[in-house]
Write a structure and sequence with these properties.
This protein is of the alpha/beta class. Helix content is 51%, strand content 9%. A six-stranded mixed beta sheet has the order 3-2-1-4-6-5, sandwiched between helices. Helix 2 crosses helix 8 and helix 10 crosses helix 11 (215-224).
Protein backbone atom coordinates (compact mmCIF):
# COMPACT_ATOMS: atom_id res chain seq x y z
CA UNK A 1 0.00 0.00 0.00
CA UNK A 2 1.41 3.39 -1.01
CA UNK A 3 2.44 5.75 1.79
CA UNK A 4 -0.26 8.31 2.53
CA UNK A 5 0.66 11.82 1.43
CA UNK A 6 1.40 14.14 4.32
CA UNK A 7 -0.38 17.46 4.84
CA UNK A 8 0.79 18.70 8.25
CA UNK A 9 4.33 19.74 9.20
CA UNK A 10 5.96 21.11 12.32
CA UNK A 11 7.78 23.89 10.45
CA UNK A 12 8.56 25.18 6.96
CA UNK A 13 11.98 23.50 6.80
CA UNK A 14 10.40 20.10 7.28
CA UNK A 15 7.77 20.99 4.69
CA UNK A 16 10.29 22.18 2.08
CA UNK A 17 12.43 19.07 2.53
CA UNK A 18 9.39 16.84 2.09
CA UNK A 19 8.15 18.72 -0.99
CA UNK A 20 11.58 18.69 -2.66
CA UNK A 21 11.65 14.92 -2.31
CA UNK A 22 8.05 14.52 -3.46
CA UNK A 23 8.48 16.60 -6.63
CA UNK A 24 12.07 15.74 -7.64
CA UNK A 25 13.30 19.16 -6.55
CA UNK A 26 11.02 21.10 -8.92
CA UNK A 27 8.22 23.57 -8.22
CA UNK A 28 6.37 26.47 -9.78
CA UNK A 29 5.87 29.71 -7.84
CA UNK A 30 3.06 32.25 -8.01
CA UNK A 31 5.21 35.39 -7.81
CA UNK A 32 3.49 38.72 -7.14
CA UNK A 33 6.76 40.67 -6.51
CA UNK A 34 5.45 41.11 -2.95
CA UNK A 35 7.51 40.41 0.16
CA UNK A 36 5.74 37.11 0.88
CA UNK A 37 6.50 35.67 -2.54
CA UNK A 38 10.09 37.00 -2.46
CA UNK A 39 10.69 35.34 0.90
CA UNK A 40 9.07 32.11 -0.31
CA UNK A 41 11.51 32.08 -3.25
CA UNK A 42 14.47 32.74 -0.96
CA UNK A 43 13.34 29.88 1.27
CA UNK A 44 12.86 27.37 -1.53
CA UNK A 45 16.29 28.01 -3.05
CA UNK A 46 17.81 25.98 -0.22
CA UNK A 47 15.85 22.87 -1.15
CA UNK A 48 14.87 22.96 -4.83
CA UNK A 49 17.01 22.55 -7.92
CA UNK A 50 14.43 24.15 -10.21
CA UNK A 51 11.97 26.92 -9.39
CA UNK A 52 9.83 28.35 -12.19
CA UNK A 53 8.07 31.56 -11.10
CA UNK A 54 5.25 33.29 -12.92
CA UNK A 55 3.73 36.76 -12.62
CA UNK A 56 0.07 37.38 -13.52
CA UNK A 57 -0.70 40.68 -15.24
CA UNK A 58 -4.21 42.15 -15.22
CA UNK A 59 -3.84 44.77 -17.98
CA UNK A 60 -3.75 43.42 -21.58
CA UNK A 61 -0.31 43.71 -23.12
CA UNK A 62 1.71 42.53 -20.15
CA UNK A 63 2.93 43.97 -16.84
CA UNK A 64 2.84 47.73 -16.33
CA UNK A 65 6.23 49.41 -16.70
CA UNK A 66 6.99 49.76 -12.98
CA UNK A 67 6.14 46.08 -12.45
CA UNK A 68 8.22 45.08 -15.45
CA UNK A 69 11.22 46.86 -13.94
CA UNK A 70 10.70 44.94 -10.70
CA UNK A 71 10.44 41.64 -12.57
CA UNK A 72 13.68 42.34 -14.42
CA UNK A 73 15.38 43.16 -11.11
CA UNK A 74 14.31 39.84 -9.60
CA UNK A 75 15.30 37.95 -12.72
CA UNK A 76 18.80 39.40 -12.43
CA UNK A 77 18.97 38.81 -8.67
CA UNK A 78 17.76 35.18 -8.77
CA UNK A 79 19.27 34.38 -12.17
CA UNK A 80 15.97 32.94 -13.38
CA UNK A 81 13.38 33.82 -15.98
CA UNK A 82 9.96 34.85 -14.62
CA UNK A 83 7.03 33.88 -16.83
CA UNK A 84 4.51 36.63 -17.62
CA UNK A 85 1.00 35.19 -17.84
CA UNK A 86 -2.49 36.79 -17.95
CA UNK A 87 -4.39 37.01 -14.69
CA UNK A 88 -7.77 35.23 -14.58
CA UNK A 89 -9.33 38.50 -13.44
CA UNK A 90 -8.38 40.24 -16.68
CA UNK A 91 -11.03 38.61 -18.86
CA UNK A 92 -13.50 38.50 -15.96
CA UNK A 93 -13.29 42.28 -15.59
CA UNK A 94 -13.78 42.82 -19.30
CA UNK A 95 -16.71 40.41 -19.51
CA UNK A 96 -18.28 42.14 -16.49
CA UNK A 97 -17.88 45.55 -18.24
CA UNK A 98 -15.82 46.93 -15.35
CA UNK A 99 -15.15 50.66 -15.93
CA UNK A 100 -16.28 50.36 -19.56
CA UNK A 101 -17.77 53.03 -21.78
CA UNK A 102 -21.20 52.17 -23.25
CA UNK A 103 -19.86 52.01 -26.80
CA UNK A 104 -17.48 49.20 -25.80
CA UNK A 105 -20.11 46.81 -24.44
CA UNK A 106 -21.20 45.27 -27.73
CA UNK A 107 -17.59 44.89 -28.88
CA UNK A 108 -16.70 43.00 -25.70
CA UNK A 109 -19.78 40.79 -26.02
CA UNK A 110 -18.93 39.93 -29.62
CA UNK A 111 -15.34 39.10 -28.62
CA UNK A 112 -16.67 36.19 -26.50
CA UNK A 113 -13.61 36.25 -24.26
CA UNK A 114 -13.04 32.80 -22.80
CA UNK A 115 -12.42 32.99 -19.07
CA UNK A 116 -9.91 30.71 -17.32
CA UNK A 117 -8.90 29.87 -13.76
CA UNK A 118 -5.72 29.35 -11.74
CA UNK A 119 -5.61 25.69 -12.67
CA UNK A 120 -5.30 26.75 -16.28
CA UNK A 121 -2.48 29.13 -15.34
CA UNK A 122 -0.62 26.39 -13.52
CA UNK A 123 -1.08 24.06 -16.48
CA UNK A 124 0.50 26.71 -18.76
CA UNK A 125 3.44 27.07 -16.38
CA UNK A 126 3.96 23.30 -16.18
CA UNK A 127 3.90 23.03 -19.97
CA UNK A 128 7.05 25.17 -20.24
CA UNK A 129 9.33 22.41 -18.93
CA UNK A 130 9.03 18.59 -18.90
CA UNK A 131 10.46 18.55 -15.35
CA UNK A 132 7.34 20.35 -14.17
CA UNK A 133 4.76 17.75 -15.25
CA UNK A 134 3.90 16.89 -11.67
CA UNK A 135 5.15 20.05 -9.99
CA UNK A 136 3.13 21.68 -7.24
CA UNK A 137 2.48 25.45 -7.17
CA UNK A 138 4.01 27.34 -4.26
CA UNK A 139 2.82 30.67 -2.91
CA UNK A 140 3.81 33.04 -0.12
CA UNK A 141 0.64 32.51 1.91
CA UNK A 142 1.39 32.41 5.66
CA UNK A 143 -0.67 31.30 8.63
CA UNK A 144 0.08 34.66 10.29
CA UNK A 145 -1.77 36.50 7.50
CA UNK A 146 -5.10 36.11 9.28
CA UNK A 147 -6.95 34.03 11.83
CA UNK A 148 -8.89 32.38 9.01
CA UNK A 149 -5.71 31.24 7.25
CA UNK A 150 -4.20 30.03 10.49
CA UNK A 151 -7.28 27.95 11.30
CA UNK A 152 -7.41 26.62 7.75
CA UNK A 153 -3.80 25.43 7.85
CA UNK A 154 -4.23 23.90 11.29
CA UNK A 155 -7.21 21.96 10.00
CA UNK A 156 -6.22 21.15 6.41
CA UNK A 157 -2.44 21.33 6.53
CA UNK A 158 0.17 23.19 4.51
CA UNK A 159 -0.23 21.18 1.29
CA UNK A 160 -3.32 20.77 -0.86
CA UNK A 161 -2.46 17.61 -2.80
CA UNK A 162 -5.65 17.69 -4.86
CA UNK A 163 -4.95 21.21 -6.16
CA UNK A 164 -1.16 20.61 -6.05
CA UNK A 165 -0.59 23.78 -4.05
CA UNK A 166 1.67 24.40 -1.03
CA UNK A 167 3.05 27.15 1.24
CA UNK A 168 6.84 27.05 1.75
CA UNK A 169 7.00 29.83 4.37
CA UNK A 170 3.71 29.08 6.13
CA UNK A 171 5.11 29.53 9.65
CA UNK A 172 6.99 32.79 9.02
CA UNK A 173 6.17 35.80 11.14
CA UNK A 174 7.12 39.44 10.52
CA UNK A 175 10.53 39.09 12.18
CA UNK A 176 11.31 36.02 10.05
CA UNK A 177 10.43 37.94 6.90
CA UNK A 178 12.65 40.86 7.90
CA UNK A 179 15.51 38.50 8.71
CA UNK A 180 15.33 36.78 5.32
CA UNK A 181 15.13 40.03 3.36
CA UNK A 182 17.96 41.66 5.30
CA UNK A 183 20.22 38.63 5.00
CA UNK A 184 19.69 38.51 1.24
CA UNK A 185 19.99 42.31 0.88
CA UNK A 186 17.22 42.15 -1.68
CA UNK A 187 14.99 45.12 -2.47
CA UNK A 188 11.20 45.23 -2.52
CA UNK A 189 9.38 46.82 -5.48
CA UNK A 190 8.37 50.49 -5.68
CA UNK A 191 4.80 49.35 -5.01
CA UNK A 192 5.39 49.43 -1.25
CA UNK A 193 6.43 53.08 -1.39
CA UNK A 194 3.52 54.03 -3.65
CA UNK A 195 0.68 51.87 -2.34
CA UNK A 196 1.92 50.24 0.87
CA UNK A 197 1.49 46.86 -0.86
CA UNK A 198 1.87 45.33 -4.31
CA UNK A 199 -0.30 46.48 -7.22
CA UNK A 200 -3.18 44.08 -7.77
CA UNK A 201 -6.20 45.92 -9.11
CA UNK A 202 -7.62 48.94 -10.91
CA UNK A 203 -9.45 50.53 -8.00
CA UNK A 204 -8.80 54.02 -6.67
CA UNK A 205 -6.10 52.93 -4.19
CA UNK A 206 -3.85 52.12 -7.14
CA UNK A 207 -5.08 54.14 -10.10
CA UNK A 208 -4.97 57.52 -8.36
CA UNK A 209 -1.30 56.95 -7.50
CA UNK A 210 -0.37 55.51 -10.88
CA UNK A 211 -1.93 58.53 -12.59
CA UNK A 212 0.50 60.77 -10.71
CA UNK A 213 3.60 58.56 -10.52
CA UNK A 214 3.51 56.69 -13.83
CA UNK A 215 1.35 58.53 -16.43
CA UNK A 216 2.29 56.16 -19.25
CA UNK A 217 0.96 53.20 -17.28
CA UNK A 218 -2.16 55.15 -16.41
CA UNK A 219 -2.79 55.74 -20.10
CA UNK A 220 -2.49 51.99 -20.71
CA UNK A 221 -5.10 51.34 -18.02
CA UNK A 222 -7.41 54.03 -19.39
CA UNK A 223 -7.14 52.60 -22.90
CA UNK A 224 -8.67 49.30 -21.73
CA UNK A 225 -10.82 50.61 -18.87
CA UNK A 226 -11.85 54.08 -20.11
CA UNK A 227 -14.13 54.96 -17.18
CA UNK A 228 -11.23 54.82 -14.73
CA UNK A 229 -10.99 58.62 -14.88
CA UNK A 230 -14.59 58.95 -13.77
CA UNK A 231 -13.98 56.47 -10.95
CA UNK A 232 -11.07 58.59 -9.64
CA UNK A 233 -13.18 61.77 -9.80
CA UNK A 234 -16.05 60.02 -7.99
CA UNK A 235 -13.77 58.81 -5.20
CA UNK A 236 -12.13 62.21 -4.83
CA UNK A 237 -15.49 63.95 -4.66
CA UNK A 238 -16.68 61.44 -2.07
CA UNK A 239 -13.61 62.06 0.10
CA UNK A 240 -13.95 65.85 -0.21
CA UNK A 241 -17.65 65.68 0.64
CA UNK A 242 -17.09 63.59 3.78
CA UNK A 243 -14.17 65.81 4.83
CA UNK A 244 -16.36 68.90 4.52
CA UNK A 245 -19.17 67.25 6.48
CA UNK A 246 -16.78 66.29 9.27
CA UNK A 247 -15.48 69.87 9.33
CA UNK A 248 -19.00 71.26 9.76
CA UNK A 249 -19.73 68.82 12.58
CA UNK A 250 -16.49 69.78 14.34
CA UNK A 251 -17.48 73.47 14.19
Amino acid sequence: MAEELRKHFSDSDELCEYMAGLSNGCTILAFSTGKDSVVAWLKMRRYFRKIVPYYLYSIPGGPLSFTERALQYYEDWFGCRILRLPHPSMYRMLNAFVLQAPENLRIIEEASLQEFDYEGINALARATDPDLDNAYQASGVRSADSIVRRQSMLKHGQINHKARRWYPAFDYKKEDMVRELDAAQIALPIDYKWFGRTFDGIDYRFTSVIKEKSPEDYERIKLVFPMVELDILRQQYRREYHASREGKVAQ
